[in-house]
Amino acid sequence: MNYQMVKHTLKLFVILLIVSCTNTSDHTSNFDPHIKDFMVESDKKEIIGHFRLVIWGISGNHRKIILSENKKSNTKYDSLTDYIFSDVPVFYKVSGDTLNIYTTGLSRIPKNQYENLIVNQIKISGPEYHKLLDDYKSKGFDLIH
User: In the chain, where are the structural domains located?
Assistant: First the structure.
């Protein structure tokens, strides 16, 4: 490699680093995970569960959705008590005390069952996902993505 090529490569790297570190709307580092919490309410408007969407990576391309019985405000999860979805988004609908989750990738079922919530996972195909994405609200679903 000659000196000019190294010089240009270094300039490009510095520019990309500056752009990636300043391109945040909430003034946090792109390397820190961003967390969004969603409450799951029963038909009686009682909180019966919590979804946590964790997004990380320079471009926000890594995502997990964690379903917990109790609210947590961090990125940690426990596979014994939490449902962990790596394929996002997920569609969900509450019917009584049952949470129906429609997703392209199922979570392992935690060993410890929830007290106030029955979780029913339904695996959908790519075409089913796209069809549901077009009209999920009219069918009474919520979406986490």
Answer: 1-28, 33-144
